[in-house]
Write a structure and sequence with these properties.
Blueprint: E1 8-12, E2 18-21, E3 27-32, H1 37-46, H2 48-68, E4 77-80, E5 83-90, E6 97-99, E7 103-106, H3 113-139, E8 146-150, E9 157-159, E10 164-168, H4 176-191, H5 197-206, H6 210-220
Parallel strand pairs: 1-3, 5-7, 8-10
Antiparallel strand pairs: 2-3, 4-5, 6-7, 9-10
Helix pairs in contact: 3-4, 4-5, 4-6
This protein binds zinc ion.
Length: 229
Amino acid sequence: MNLPLVDQVIRSRRKTVAILVRPDGKVIVRAPLRLSREKILAFVQSKAGWIAARKAEAQEIQQQVAHRKRRFAEGETFPVLGREYPLRLAGGPKTGLWFSEGFVLNSENLPQAAALFERWYRAMARKILTERTRFYAQTFGLTYQKLRISSAQTRWGSCSSHGTLSFTWRLVMAPLEVVDYVVVHELAHLRHPNHSAAFWAEVARMMPDYKTHRDWLKKNGRFLTLQQA
Ligand SMILES: [Zn+2]
């Protein structure tokens, strides 16, 4: 049965009609065994706006994810503090990966590209996070013991009961205000080792517009990765 807007109709012993837009953008309609084509069509038509919005959303997410899958190809861009920098592949005597207005990789080192990029980001993370943490700790009279750079995939930062602050190196892919939000968040844990109202009040005192940056991270965090295609 072909219906406009619909890729597949699955009939079963269900009582109601349901529309599903899959991550690949395909529209699936689940319908009762004997419901007429006209009734299904009318239902789908009544949801046309919703379907179009879900399809657009699915397509956008797919494009973003495809764009983020790393091939380490010439011209591919990599974010540093929220700005995208292109990769150039070079020959010559200089080996490895370096930064000169953008990333430059000796093409002989392509097989090690992921490890080289991670090493570069780690060094950058140590530098930036040490600087920012020192600055905020001094400004707000907080003392921490140690700063660690981790490879955490899902955690941006943490604060141990002994006062060790950990930050994942992936964080320096985000804009500086977002880096600062995570720094402020972990520093606030030195005073409140929980996510109580008092903790969030402390975060707001140090960074009044923290919600904008927290939301940015929620929305864009999954794209801050070197994950390979
Ligand atoms: Zn926290």
